[in-house]
Prior knowledge:
Chain A is mainly alpha-helical. Chain A has one domain (2-85). Chain A is built from 3 helices and no strands. The mean pLDDT of chain A is 87. By secondary structure, chain B is mainly α. Chain B has a single domain (2-84), classed as Helix Hairpins (Orthogonal Bundle), CATH 1.10.287. Helix content of chain B is 82%, strand content 0%. Chain B contains 3 helices and no strands. The N and C termini of chain B lie far apart (55 Å). The relative contact order of chain B is 0.13. Classes of the chains: A mainly alpha, B mainly alpha. At the A-B interface, helix 1, helix 2 and helix 3 of A face helix 1, helix 2 and helix 3 of B.
Amino acid sequence: MRExxxxxxxxxGAAFTLIAGIGLLRAPDTxxxxxxxxxxxxxxxxxxxxxxxxxxxxxxxxxxxxxFLLLTVPVGTHVLAKAIYEQHLPRRSGPKWPDSEGS
Amino acid sequence: xxxTAATLAIALLVGALACCVARLVVGPSFxxxxxxxxxxxxxxxxxVVTLGVLWQTRDYADVxxxxxxxxxxxxxxxxxxxxxxxxxx
Lengths: 103, 89
């Protein structure tokens, strides 16, 4: 039972990370690439860390890393998204975006 | 069962690693390369954890802590770099 749980968590985490990588290659513009890649890769890393936690029967480092990732990845993503937004990079045509002045 | 699953997971992660490196090389803008390296840190962290399970060792348990901290600091630093247009601005 424990082996099955660890195996599912490891393969699931790796599969989510692979989906993040494929999305990073295929998404049309920079905002989409960031949107696609960061969340799925964080989820995949969290899955693998929880699998390692169950496999070794507890560990301080895994809990620390999961908490740290859940705290810092949104912050870093937000800062990077603001930086990309101010770059005026080419975007896929679609809904009209607000002007970045005064944001 | 666990070694098979860990080997399969490593195969998937190497594919993700190749995707990240391809975007890091191709990426039209500097922002794309920052996004790719941000994802690359998470993929390498996942790979180290999976290798630790495959080899049944706790020797690499401290590596994800350092990777999480340095990945966050690097992403924020690079984002501020492209916002301000240079290292000293």
